[in-house]
Amino acid sequence: MFFRRSHILWILIICEAVSGDYVTKAVNSETAFTPVSGSVAPSTTSIIWKHRNNAGVVVKVIEWDRDDGSIEIPNANFKSHTRLDKGTGELTLKDLQLKHTGVYTIDINSKEQRKQFSLTVIEHVNKPRITKDCLLGDVPECTLSCDGGDGPSEPTITWKNSAGETLYRQNMRTITVTKSSDPENFYTCTLKNAVSEETSDPVYERDLFDGVDVMKAVGDQVSFHPDKSLPPPVTSIIWKHINTAGIVVKAIEWDEGEILIPNPRFRDITTVDEKTGQINITNLKVEHSGVYTIDINSKEQQQRFTLTVMERVPKPVIEPEKIKDNPLVVNLTCKYSETIIWKNSAGQILPGLALHPKGEFITVEKKGNLENSYTCTLKNAVSEETSARVNERDLFKKSAEGHCM
């Protein structure tokens, strides 16, 4: 009986030691942490709230001392974000940012209290966009991709059709749909995380299978296929290309066994299957962007195939720029025109500021964690490249040598 009571006592002690609140909040929202009722008495002489980030670095958030009546917020990460109720000890954090993620503790009269408060701050999910890659063969089908879910807090993905039915299992970034008899049927994808939810605009079947929009990188290949079997007898097939200036040229022509490629832009890279009508173009260049149409037996078909060929993004290079009057702060720049995504070693996305004429920069402070690092990623519709990591120990090497830590 004694041992059973001892075990129960140990369980109670352990639970009390690790007790706390666990909160997930959105960027720019607000939260409050209140110590155990009665822990702040009229005789309380000091209150200190502390923050421990995911790297284990501890800083003071806010400090109150009865002797001089002052409230201090020593860390720049919490200035203009923090409020303290001296009567209850309640800490309020407003306009939350990713950097406020971590564990919060309170010292009352220089004694740390057992209760801890764990806060996770995450971005709202972006409104997703559905992109498509269609193959219009004997059974027309499209691969739909739900784009917009990148970030440190991976959202759940849910696909639905116009009847409200959930398609496939959850968290499939891509699904494949086939052409049905209902052109008004549509598809949506929804991104959801702990703090927000967004649904894409619907993509209608009538738009999926009436024409095809494809994005490819320079050097890739592409194939376009009529949505119906060719009606016999087929005596001629002509694929035409309309560039962005509206100029129409023949890409390839098949006429009763003879293949003609009159335009040098398509020579040596273009083939056509006279049985299915499929055109194949390899070693794509930007000049191959435009609209493609097909004539069968000298009759132009209704289908339109839109091709956009883009250059791949280069591998970016981060350029550090020292701040003359502050050796503990550095600007990191990524001077490119594409979409730029900044991340730290914890995987958190960091907001960048625009540079002119192009690019973005972020300002980083010395945190004391030499293993912390930063990357910048370039992204367009066809490619993605990430820079080499820039480590804090290299950014602040001289300041670490010149200052006592």
From TrEMBL:
One of its GO terms (cellular component) is membrane. InterPro entries: CD2/SLAM_rcpt, Ig-like_dom, Ig-like_dom_sf, Ig-like_fold, Ig_sub. Residues 1-20 form the signal peptide. It is found in: Membrane. It comes from the Eukaryota. Keywords: Glycoprotein, Membrane, Signal. This is CD48 antigen. The lineage of its organism: Eukaryota, Metazoa, Chordata, Craniata, Vertebrata.
